[in-house]
């Protein structure tokens, strides 16, 4: 969206109205992004696909390009821990960076004006988890049936979770 492309502008219009971006727009944005040179030797998608229909579009696109998906990484965490982490997260008003729970200033720009985003409030996070269970959780079964699912625990520090992910993905042939 930052680049001001037609697809990005379409997505922004939906988001500005508080609506979900339709799969057709999201899928095309992902397809376009994966054709860039920096994705030629691999890529990591975060937050996409969000439903089985998107996963099927991604699979077809990658197979047509002779670059089938190698793995889907699931970060496993208890719902109460998700609520705790997200509802304690703060955002820097100056630069938009996320601040760790308990932080008094932004680690990116040192500003002290931190606030809680509306979508990080406990009741909103709980609702997001309900939506996840309804719409996104079926992707786990989809990728498990494809033999692509790798599950790692999302406990510990960001560095520790990253190490677990790299180790798990490093096992791919």
TrEMBL record:
Nucleotide-binding among keywords: yes
Pfam families for this protein: ADK
GO biological process, one term: nucleobase-containing compound metabolic process
Bilayer-crossing regions: none
This protein's record includes keyword Transferase: yes
Entry keyword set: Kinase, Nucleotide-binding, Transferase
InterPro entries given in the database record: Adenylat/UMP-CMP_kin, Adenylat_kinase_CS, P-loop_NTPase
GO MF term list: ATP binding; nucleobase-containing compound kinase activity
Cross-referenced PANTHER family: NUCLEOTIDE KINASE
Protein's UniProt name: Unannotated protein
Source species: freshwater metagenome
